[in-house]
Amino acid sequence: MNFFETSRQVTVLGAGMVGVSCALALQAKGWRVTLVDRQGPGQETSGGNAGVLSRSSLLPFNRPGLWQALPQMLLKPGPGLSVRASALGNWPWLWRFLWHARRTSFDTTTVALDGLIQLSGATHRAWLRSAQHHLRETGWLWLYPSDLAFAGSAFAREVLQEFSVATEVLTPKGLHDLEPHVAPHFSHALWIKDAASVSNPQAVVAQYAAQFVAAGGVFQTAHIQSLSQQASGWQWQTHDGNVHWAPNLVLAMGPWSESVLAASQLPSRFKVHMGFERGYHRHFKAVDGVSLGRPLYDTAGAYVLSPMCNEAGESLMRMTTGVELAALDAKANRTQLEAAENAARKIFPMREAVPESDWLGARPTTPDSRPVIGELPGCPGLWLAFGHQHIGFSTGPGTGVLLAELMSSEPTSIDPRPFRPERFEVA
Ligand SMILES: Cc1cc2nc3c(=O)[nH]c(=O)nc-3n(C[C@H](O)[C@H](O)[C@H](O)COP(=O)(O)OP(=O)(O)OC[C@H]3O[C@@H](n4cnc5c(N)ncnc54)[C@H](O)[C@@H]3O)c2cc1C
Prior knowledge:
32% of the residues lie in helices and 25% in strands. By secondary structure, it is of the alpha/beta class.
């Protein structure tokens, strides 16, 4: 194989929304792409999420005001945040994450995420094509139980206004007119209109992967263990002892990216310190004649209820929980799920839980809440695309487009600097 043939050849490791999107975007620029995963596309975090694509997601959790709220959050933990003992072992991430809850960092992050979200929204809509039926352009709702709770969200609303995100404040009557089956327990609702949602996130990732294969892309199953640099290109080793080579690699293994880097001998002083904001979901059978037109976020109960459908096309409700800080592989604890179900049943009619539908995933979060997108310093040909925290399902496509532009040395659609891996170089 000569230089010209290998220079535009790449292997993407990880087939969640981010990896599949990188594969599709690179393929569209003429790259020969192999996509690798230990299982089928979208079987992990990208399959189990709430399926919300929203411009409101430009607001990271570490924002101004977090320090002041912290004592209350720790002394009287609500349903939205549970800190397990195993999370404390990850204190290097924790304190960096808190350190970034400052105005300057917040301003950089919100501008960067807004660009990535808008680029992703346009790309999702272009790619959805034959999966259009999964897309609902109806926005989503944030629900507040009292005037006090609504007043407490003033900062978020101000930021959304600053970014011209379309929203409408609804009275109890307005909420009833929009969602007649939601119980009248809320003094206010914020309808985020610049938002869409999908009815089956896993099916959407699978559809994108099918489009990639149909256009000549190769999908390979392998359990990746580590990476190593060669005189030309990169080797990746698998758990069964096999060794593969590629001139260029994209590491897009979501929550598992950091551990693969740690297991690899790399000539780079890069240390990202990834946090794991774990979250659960449970499915409920829908009541005949009762529907929800859009996902809703009950701010008091700290869960999201999303109308979805399964592979057989049957309607169901997916309830996703708030944040559980814990080690990536810590045992599941269903306390948040049970609390969320109790709260959700009071506001929306649902039948019994779907047997064995409980799921646990981890939002991979960098200290500054911005994903890492770019070439690893000191490692030409090794590109990173991970750390998409709460919004990787929506921002995978924009990540793919940006990465493909960078790898093809083209002008970029958005400013790549806030996402550069260089910000995590250690002295
Ligand atoms: C409860 C919850 C709700 C969420 N709701 C939303 C939402 O509404 N909207 C939104 O945009 N985002 C949401 N998110 C966040 C979103 O799901 C993630 O940011 C996103 O899925 C991350 O995508 P990814 O491709 O980076 O990771 P993943 O989807 O986890 O993909 C990583 C891939 O790497 C593969 N892999 C791992 N290890 C290996 C190995 N050793 N060898 C080979 N392959 C390997 C895995 O099999 C997997 O396919 C939510 C997350 C959670 C937990």
